[in-house]
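Chain X:
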Amino acid sequence: MIPNSSGAGKKETQAHEKVAYIRQMLGELRGVASNEGADMLCYLIEMAFVEAGDILSGKRLLSFANAEGNQAAGMPMKPTGKIKF
């Protein structure tokens, strides 16, 4: 990729790196869910993993913020505490 002098190129690179990180974490979470026999969680995590892969490959846009459609619920996500394995 040719470096872009504008800030847009840097933002795209940062977004790509963040989605790649999320995809990596989803892969690890899928393994944990599988070890616990949580089939539904495995399925949902796999769907998110595929979605992140589609974004990284350019098959899907990163954001539909300007398009009409379903929006995320915006539910607050708070950790439940320490996770025991």
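Chain Y:
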Amino acid sequence: MERALKHKFPVGSTVYFTASNISRPAATGTYEVMRQLPSDGDDCQYRIKSSTEAFERVAKESQLAMS
């Protein structure tokens, strides 16, 4: 039986994003959680936005920490 993963960060939370060395370059820093997305295997995903960028990013929960 597969269990559903629970998101750790609610929408509106301020989180600290650490970019992965493997994925495309991204600015490490403080972001706001805009939306919770379906999990990607064993890691929840989020749509996050920085006040210094005009666009949103997708981040895995393992890349985020409470700010």
